[in-house]
User: Fold these one by one.
Assistant:
Number 1:
Amino acid sequence: MRMHTDVYSHVCKRTFFSMETEQIQKRIDELKKLISENNEHYYIENAPVISDYEFDMLMQELASIEKAHPELITPDSPTQRVGSDLSNARKGSRKASKEFEQYPHRYPMLSLGNTYSVTEIEEFADRAAKAIGDAFTYCCELKFDGTAICLTYRDGKLFRALTRGDGSVGDDVTENVKRIPNIPQRLNGIGWPKDFEIRGEIYMPYKAFDRLNEERRRDEEAPFANPRNAASGSLKLTDPDEVANRGLECTLYHILGEDLHFKTHDQALRCAMKWGLPVSDKRKICRNIVEIVEYVKYWDTERKFLPFATDGIVIKVNELPYQDSLGYTSKAPRWAVAYKFKAEQALSKVLSIDYQVGRTGAVTPVANLEPAQLSSTVVKRASLHNSDQMEVLDIRVGDYVYVEKGGEIIPKITGVELSKRDGFCVKPDFPTVCPDCGARLVRDEGEAKWFCPNVDGCPTQIKGKLVHFLSRKAMNVIAGDATIEQMYNKGYVRNVADFYKLDENKLLHLDGWKEKSAQRFLASLEESRNVPFEKVLFALGIRHVGETTAKQIARAFGSMDAIMNAGREQFLAVGDVGDVIADSIIAWTSVPRHREIVERLREAGLKLKVDGLVEKVSDVLAGQTVVVTGNFSISRDAVKKLVEANGGKNGASVSKKTSFILAGSKPGPEKIRKADELGIRIVTEEEFLSMIPEQEVIMDDNSSEPKTTAEIPVQGNLFGW
Ligand code: IVH
């Protein structure tokens, strides 16, 4: 017998035909709850708990019950609606979608019916043939495993990008989408409709995904479970510059609009390609089920060599008038179906389980396996994530387990093959004390992981923090793990500030060190004094403060002092910061030892504030978001600094949340048009200067003397139109 996670085994064992109505209703409620919870893990948290297959089986069970008992179908059933990715969809979320405007979709953004069986594709083809009653073709395409996007082009320009949202309303992610290199902001060629939508998928190629997860693992941030989650998480970042760094790509596959004159889906995609839009060339026109199955089989093997993730094949009726006549259900088109590939699995024996302590003290169980071939790699280790996961799997040392690659570097164990369990299997005991320092492990409420609480005394944690501090993305000091271990073992460094007390004399006492290596290390340490504040903040290794968060916090607060004095609400007002990050920073800064380290780093000359920071002068703009556009008598950066120095926030794009537009000469016409549309006030440079107290303006590096705001010349009407 095959045992999966409890949800799935439940599905397998159930037969609903014999149930009484009350029991049926109970199971429906149970399924709805499971589906809704897992939708939230998938779409909102970007961290699925069960596999796609398990999720699809839950949906299938619900659909079958509803088919047998149509009187029990409710309009809010997940079989009738698409899952929601809206950032404020999570109940009780503190991070309501404060960064994204929401707009209605012109056409509902639906899902696709899916199947894992060839027989069901045949049934789909039969149904289509019967309804059409004439000759037609299919367009078969790859099913890209990303996150759905809807782009609107007006007059050949990218006008708006919306996520699927709940199918009716989507999050406006235009600014982020503009930073995805293969999405054109202007169309090429001729003949594009004046106003049309094109839908597709934003995805993260494996290379970018591996790079991102490697960074996250090194920073002890939870890695993304798969490229799909990484893509949708990245698309919802609040800083477009960060989005640009994530290596996202787009592929488009569905054009919609009022005045489109294409005859077939394939023709529409060929035109889109000519206009410069990214369209996959892997599609194929098939005339019958034999050709469809050939295509499916071909890609089930070939997809392993693609540089991005696919989770199936989409089969579409190619002729657009026939698509129209087949139409839609409330959830999906009747003219298309998805055939989904099952994830590849290997069966392997658990030899032992290690418990690894990370730099933040988190204890992760890792299974050592008998080497097994999975896709193109040999798997020897698999993560068990945490003790709950071990309980759910009821795993024993000696068990045979199913291993899957969810796109992660370390594969995961998805189930135990109970039929292969023998009397020699041993139930593992999750340690109660740290495998390194022996401290009793703790687990806070809501945490999935056990932690070693000996933060400043556990050698593994200390060494992990020291390594992190000097790492490339942090202080960028040339020193390998072994060097740091040597320094630690000699008792030279116990915390990150100790590095700056090292001298050549001490270093020459380390095994194998010569003058040259000591000088090279000291020179590199010297250079680290110029590392920008955001990197120093990241280097401190505060739990949950990864590279991106450190950057956002450094920019929002400007200095370590401001961070150490800030309250919870101030942290929550920053970009992607939520409760967990806010609490973690406050917990870190309230430890006297940590404050002492900060002071020692200050004495060592590290940068503890943002370069060119204008100290807070007033709070006259507190709570206001200002969009600065056009040219001013001082640089635009200096104007933005003035906004921040007076308590305001700079916004990148105009939205309902913009307090006013600060417009110099030649402001962006699109920004002004949007401001007009939303009734947002436009403020001139002169008016702005009269709003804030007179102050010294830090000019750009290449400018001469600092000016005061009173000295800035203001030239009449600054609008350039
Ligand atoms: S066509 C009306 N084509 O898969 C729906 N969808 O699981 C039209 N997807 O919602 C969708 N590759 O986000 C279509 N070649 C492809 C696709 C594709 C991926 C996504 C899409 C859809 C989801 C359903």
Note: The chain has a mean pLDDT of 87.
Number 2:
Amino acid sequence: MIKYRTLGFVNTKDMFAVAVKEEFAVPAYNFNNMEQLQAIVMGCLETQSPVIIQVSKGARDYADRTLLSYMAQGAVEMMKREAKARKISEIPIALHLDHGDSLETCISCIESGFSSVMIDGSHLPHQENAELTREVVEYAHKYDITVEGEIGVLAGVEDDVSSLTHTYTEPEDVQDFVSRTGVDSLAIAIGTSHGAFKFKPGQKPEIRLDILHEIEKRIPGFPIVLHGSSSVPQDAVETINKNGGKLKDSIGIPEDQLRNAARSAVCKINIDSDGRLVMTAKIREIFSQKPAEFDPRKYLGPARDALREMYMRKNREVLGSADRAAAILALAGR
Ligand code: G3H
Ligand code: 13P
Ligand code: ZN
């Protein structure tokens, strides 16, 4: 059993307490490889933002679970060294399992140093979801690890689970789920969806802030999580398609709607697809402009820079998480 604190991670408790009080959301960015992880951590250090670095089951299969968790540990060391060299404050980093599918996957992550896990039973009937989530909470809380549950189903793809339509979270269900399971945060379905194709051109992209407010009334101050919150940057889609790509037109979640949500009880916002688009756009551009280039550092390096810039802008302009790191570390007594 590797204890996450000895690796320098924090759980999400203090992050969410400050985020709820100060009306911002902590970014939860997915990573599958070194360049993504470097871009996330360096972008968040630069903007002095707390961050949740998260890995899906797919990421653990792709990059190897052991390699991924050692990379995450290395990222904390890199952040500390950079902070010291530049005489800036360190930032709180949580290592989180995204869309955990079973108690076993959660235990495997907890044992390898994760500070937070999600158990996603959203596709199960309410009772079964609550029971599974309760089991994970019982195990995780013994080690002071925070747990995210989910009720309601997002349209799009949730790992292996594919659903074509939203099942919005029923506000009447949340109190019962939260009190029965003891979860630390709750992911809800209010119109966001996974992937790069959320709304077709002509459709009005809208998240249901009315449902969010109903939920907030029932569990005041309880940390809410939004999955599927990429905004699908149109310049990245255009660059991809101008340089040989064939992405269909799509619209993501408008950033002003996310900013509004972050001012309420939403205190964790998950973004993955936007990073994939920005990286792909840069790599395609370089391949078009420099067809003789074959050193991966010459295209992955610029892609990493573009990604870091994107995270910095999200923290400053969308999540409102820039310059909040110190308040969280102060609450944690560090
Ligand atoms: O919610 C899904 C995340 O974007 C992770 O995606 O399962 O393809 O790694 P993935
Ligand atoms: P996007 O596909 O909108 O980036 O959502 C990511 C996510 O919810 C990860 O859990
Ligand atoms: Zn998700």
Note: The domain at 4-328 is CATH 3.20.20.70 (TIM Barrel).
Number 3:
Amino acid sequence: MAAFELLERDGLARRGRLETPHGTIETPALLPVVHPDPARQPLSPREMRARLGIRAVITSSYITWRTPPLRATAESRGIHGLLEFDGPVMTDSGAFQQHAYGSVEVGPDEILAFQNTIGADIGTVLDRFTEPESERDDAASALETTLERARVARSQREGLLAVPVQGGRHEDLRLRSAERASEFADVLAVGGVVPLLEQYRFPELARALAAARPGLNPGAAVHLFGTGHPMTFAFAALWGVDLIDSSAYHKFARRGSLLFAEGTVSIDGIREDLCHCFLCAELPLPEVARRPVAERERRIAFHNLLTSVEEIGRVRQAIRDGTLWELAERRATAHPALRAGLAEATRHPEVFLPTEPLSRRAFREVMPDSRTRPAVARFRRCVEEYGRDRPLPARLHRVPLRPEYLARIPTEDRGGRSIEWVCETPLGTVPVELLDLYPVGPYLGVDEFVDRPGHRPASAVTAELRERSELDADLDRDWSEEWTRRQVRALLSVAYGPEIAAAVGEEARGARSHRTGRLRTIGADGNPWFVIGTDGFPRPTFHGASRLLAFLPEGRSRVVVSYDAVPFVSRGRSVFSRFVTRADPNLVPDETALLVDRADTLLGVGRLLLAPHEMPRLRRGVAVRVTAHAKAPVPVDEVEESPAEPSDRGSD
Ligand code: GUN
Ligand code: ZN
């Protein structure tokens, strides 16, 4: 077990790798469904690899088993011999045939043994396919059967095991299924959803995923059975799906349908060269339409697989860039049903928030629904909480102002009463001192272009304030210092709570960029304690962390590492998850934590790759990337003997 390693993430979505006996699968990965009978397969797996870079495929062990000549070949030459493919091969078990034809003629033990015999890299338990319409009692008893089979299968298989997650539309059953399957599975395969995908019932799919998700072991790879259309890949990845299978490339080809990430196009109506993929460049689509059936099918299947491979590449790139929500939203415009599915996803922020990063490089509005992303849900909670901690504002004003005008805006009236200023933004009402924070700080939306306030000289701002001024405030004084103080407190309060903000704020001062006027550092005696990046969050330096240590209660903002990792972490090596003994459960990915040993001695600071709840379960790879540390870097020759993993894989 523990075959999955997470390398990079965007919320629940992960870029990772799954080790198999026939090589590593880079995830999210597309596994084309190939027919075990080469005569019924429009493209051979070998050709898929040579021309499209396909690394892994999935096939049916059940069809192989029940077709004597295929079975004989598979038994003598293995499934890799039958498919003439030496990359990773996942085999399915026959549950889908139960869905399609009502029954399967093989028992769970026999089909598992067969998958072992033919050398499947990932074998699948014979589950009971639960239709979305199944009543609760039936779904529950089918689930027990599947789980019992999984328990037996685990004891009879050494290789990677996929355990389907069923439960139909019953949310508690989906959760239980995910939790119990997690005890046995290297691959958690969310099943019973083909009817939802075929009928574009994406909100129901979202509810099934939302229900199962909290129960899925983060240390296992997640497969979603049946998501063949490339327009759905970003949506699937958003939930943390690592493996996607596609029979759609072939199924759609049979009926003359071309798959694009933007939707489906029937070849019959095509008169223009819509596609210039290398295949369509060879023979334009209007001509493909007139070819004999077999050639036409083969060419369309090839094109379909090509657009699917391209899209899974875009998904992986989006995870690297932190733009997967944007990609998913763009894809959702392909079909209103998919948009409805995405809207349903945002109704489950609790599913996304534990792994939602502190910030991303940018926040681009794609559609009105962009304003309901989990990042926004978190930000609204943060603003509310900040408001709760504050005295009631003496005055509340809605000002369309950016922080560069701060010198002109008074923080108190002539009577010395505090004036609280808030700004109306596309993401709601935000106190002015929090305007730099992600997502509102880097927010780029239509409003900026529709109703652009333009740059106004500070004198104009003063004039406007004066005009509106029912305030008895001194508008000629320079208020920058006050704003800096207020902003320092506000940011520290958001990060560590009001008491710590008050204590640290006593000693530390903020410094602004001369060029942009934005707060850049918080520190004292010329030492920065916190550095503030473009996401607006103060991140402690090593020096700052050592000061924070005194203020924060034990455990808070900490990741505790075991003693054998101390020499490495204190010299700047990444913290591998298996050396984490405890982590503050309130930390989130990308947040900067204090790295300490068990005696609470500071070793360094680093950014979380994993959420705290994932650290005990993802035993392979990096949990925290160290950004500043106590000692000089570890010499290279010592690294070889380290108890840490031999290379810093994953920190690429
Ligand atoms: N293929 C499509 N859906 C399913 C499913 O629910 N279970 C299995 N084993 N295979 C599938
Ligand atoms: Zn094409």
Note: The two ends are 24 Å apart (CA to CA).
Number 4:
Amino acid sequence: MEDVVCKFGGSSLANFENIQKVKDIILSSKKRFVVVSAPGKQDKNDIKLTDCLINCFNLSKLDKDFSKFFDIFKDRFVKIKQQAKVRINLKTIFLEIYKRILSHNDFDYDYIISRGEYLSALIISKYLGYRFLDAKDFIFFDKSGEVDLISSKIAFKKLIKKDECYVIPGFYGLSFNNRIKTFSRGGSDLTGAIVALLSDFIKYENYTDVDGFLVANPSIVKNAKIIKELTYKNMRTLTYLGANVLHQDCLKFLKENDIILNLRNTFNSKNCGSLILPDKFKDKIGAKIIGLSGKKDYSVVEFRSYDIQKYFFVINVFDRVLRQNGLRIEQIISSIDCINFIVDKSDFDEIILTKIEDELICEYENNHISNKDFQIKITNNVCLIAIVCNSFNLEILNKIFTSIIKEKDFLFISKSLTESSVFVGYKNDNFENILNKLYKKLF
Ligand code: ASP
């Protein structure tokens, strides 16, 4: 028996054929805890069963016929159950879900959309000869909607018997008022991390349909390589600019116990995938460029004034006005006489600019500054690219600098004191092209 938590995503469980592959992986080393998603898409034109349930609820709320989606949901499970040759009374379960969809109470929404995971775990536990452990019996949310790790751990330890293996439905737990509560979409990743934390295991295997964390977004860079090892921090920087293989909040739970996450492919299980390691392993990985990520549609708002050190209140003004308008400062770069705000909007509009100028003038007056001589310049349609590094050496720095500056449309570069990643700004238009060129030069 292997002390490991493994989680299988929707595509790994989309049909019986895939579930057989999952079984081989699990039983190859009798993995102790298995967390499952709801069956996902079998091909591009298919639908995830969680989406079926969401559609049922939304249609029912509009008093519309939801039978088409409910039938898809039922038929898929009936087929899997029959092929797996397990005995479960699906009819009663379907009836209960149907009744709740029909009465479409908002407080039942999370219960309804979590039933894909529930049924998936029920069937797979029987198929594997593992015990079924319902997540609602040990993942508890507190009043603020956070997982209460202390009470969850007490409940988990009480439920678990030595030498038993378990299948657990992902994506949900129990709210403080005893209702099923789901995480945000993709939340089974979090269930896996939580189970690893509660069981004091240091290894969490997360199986998807890709070979691991890729060096760059595969929809832009074809045949991007796999990152064999990266730290939590490297992953955070990659996901910050759009790389999305895992649920963003996973790190929160992994960090608590320095859990090692292994991202693997169900359909290519011989491949070792990517290892996401606690930050203390930074030196083991050494000086290396880890990956590239990037996003389009930012703007750079430059505030310029002589002797800017006196005027740091401008940061608060920008932050306040931008927030009031639903925008966010993504990064700040400052120099002797200017501060650059990188804002998550490609076309920064005049109305917001006027609001900022008005508030700045008020603030100057409040601070008794008579010289209100400042300029604001806007550069729209900017993309931000992160070159994620584990740590530097001269050779790497040289490689990065020569690669980024040679690109036309280059706008700016930033790197903080302790972070090993470099952020680069370019004009939007050539984003895909630039990413491809950087990939070729750097990897
Ligand atoms: N089935 C849920 C979703 O589609 C949760 C998950 O798969 O992790 O978001």
Note: The first strand starts at residue 2 and ends at 8.
